Every structure is written in C-alpha cells, then in structure tokens.
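Hi P.,

Sorry for the delay on this. The queue was packed all week, but I finally got your sequence through. Input first:
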Amino acid sequence: MPTNKTFRLTTIAIFIALLIVQTFIPNVGYLRIIPALPAVTTIPLTVAVCGSLFGPGMGALMGLTWGLLSLLVAYTQPFDPVSLMLFQNPLIAVLPRLAAGWLAGYFSNAHKKWHPLAAGLTASLVNSAGVILLTSLLFMGKTAWFAHYLGHVPAGSPLIVMLLIALGGNAIIEAIFTGILTPLIVVPLRRVLAKVGS
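Then the structure:
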C-alpha cells in the first residue's frame, strides 16, 4: 500500500468527504425503506473499503467519523423517533461504528485471502449488533416506548428481541450489500493505489 504521506492524507480526506456526502445527501448513505424505523445505510461499505485498504487505524478513524456524523444528524435532523432516541446517545452513535471500522481493518490484515469479504461483513454486522446490544442495555426501562414505535413485535418481548425483529432485516440487507461490494471495489483499487502511491 502507498506510504507517501501526502498521498495518504489526500486519500483520508477523500474517504471522509465520501462519508459526509453519504450522511447529508438524501438517499445516498441512508435509504428510507420503512418511515418509522432507522434507514438502511450504505456507509459500512465506505468504512469497510477504507479499513481493507489501510488497516485497523484508518478503519477506526472512518468508524469514528461515521459515529460523530451520526450523532450530529441525530441532533440536527433526526429522521424518525427511533433514530432520535438511539443516536443522540454518544455511546450508541459512536462505539459500534468505531468497533466496526477497526475490526474491518483488522480482518484486512489477518485474513489475506478473504479479507475484503470479511471486512465488508464485519463492518456491517458489528455496527448493527453493537447498536442493538447497547440499546437493549441502556434503554431497558423504555420497552413500552420502543414497542409503540417499532410496531409488529410480540407483546411483552424483551427489548433486545424487539430490536432484533425490527432491525434484523436492515442488518441482513446491509451485510449482504457490503459483503458483496467490498471485494469488488477493494481488489482493483488496491492495484490502482499501489501504482499511484509508489
């Protein structure tokens, strides 16, 4: 991978710009499928690609940027009540994204053969699992509130079950999308970056 410092900084700036575009331009980074529920996001793809190309540190930086942008959006233009409740909490907004980026980068180093696919799946699934687990821990006393907004969930279910039922579809769609596209982008981009940055 390229070691030239200027080239690396330029590449980082491009990836951060992509995250900003995905965050603030409608239907680019967040696809609204069910109005009352959080959107399906394409942002894990950007995080996974960056982590695959540059390793855990860069993956974590992209995850952190994504988390901070999620926090900003939750306070300035929340799309739905559930997103507002979840992502105005810094732990839920930032930690799963940070972990997703770092682990995507880790898989890029640890599993050379499968790393782009593993990075894509990891970035998406770790984010979704982290959001669901942290929400179920931090909002145990808000089960009735979530049941009202999440809709079709079994009465009296634990909050984690409600979240899995309501958000599991999003998680699967995001994982398939990111898992398939990450290798298709990373493999040719590695070759290009190796030439340009050498």
